[in-house]
Amino acid sequence: MENIRFNNSNNGGGDCPLCNKETDFKNIFFRDNVFAGSQIFELSATMSKENLNYGRGDCVLDIKQCSGCGLIYNASFNHRKIQQVYLNEKYMQQKIFSTSLNNTLLNIKNKIMSYSEKDDIFLEIAPGLGDLFYALAKEVKFIYGVDPSPSSSSRIKGLKNAKLIQDFFDENIKNRINEKVNFIIFRHLLEHIDTPKILLQNVVDFLPEDGKIYIEVPNALEIFKHKRFYEFFHDHVNYFQPNVLINILNELGCECIDIHYPSSEQWVGLFFKKTKKIIRQNLEIYYYDNGIFQDNIDKTNALLNCSKNIAIMGGGIHANSILNYLTEDNLKNIICAFDANPEKIGRFLQNSDIEIMEITKENLKDIECIIMAMPVVEEKVFENEILNFKKQGLAPKLKAVILSAKELRLVNLKENGC
Description:
Helix content: 10-25%
Oligomer: single chain
Distance between the termini: 49 Å
CATH architecture of the largest domain: 3-Layer(aba) Sandwich
């Protein structure tokens, strides 16, 4: 399907991709010229600052909310372009390389295991690089992975209780699995699916009675609470409040048995059990106003106006995303991005000459301001790294840091401000 649009006009009606009902939709947020995919990292500089399209993409965010089930989604999601992103050789999946992210993963694994039975057979949909898959394989009787990408295969070599099926998860996948699966897991997948109801129905239909499901997604409540605008990028077509998922899974015959919040509540993990009981909780949903994020976009640009040499801390998805929200002048003052992942060093943010660099004294020497673009680990990086740069004299010109994960604010590192 090319350039999917769900027949929604300004607060008009249409069919919701989650509840499948014809209903009204509220406009929440609009942005054009965004990147098709924020996980593309160029091998060389692809555009100079003189170019009119510098730091801009060719897709649209038209964020709406269903007045019925409360789903928040991009009505201008372009299916064809996102498929091209996934096939691009410069596409890089998120890789765990920090202690804090690894600890988060281990906590998720332990939480999942607390709900498993001794003889449960597991299935993870879209395990990606296979970090959780590998951790679970060490403890469970058997685990299947279903992923059209071969990227997980290297992690299961030598594991006798694991099998990766290189395919899409759909109603036909049962024909390729030899055992009765009791527990299905999918993390950070549902926000990428433009037909979420179909995926959820297939998962529920696959499981036997009392089978369990673990779903993990970005927590829309937390994004809206802190008005973190750069969490909106074209890769994500859906944004979920926990209660939205609980209500829709209730309709499909599942009860929620637990909720937990890894990564400072920025993610939400929900456990469900398939049941014969009829569940109609109709939990409360929050509905949002149009333009809720504009104040923070304007404030971010105003805070950057006093600096000429700006760096982005965190050369990842959010670094690419945040470019779309900067004014032309501020965008041209970004001179580099810093990242601890060695695989990204030497690459570039999209449609720019912004290189992803290692954090060194030489690379820090001219930086006046750093904008954080790594919300999950922002507080730790600020306390453990950036403040130490100043104390050790590694960043003599650094005078300000913009913190944006919990409360958008400028931290002045010089007594007289900027």
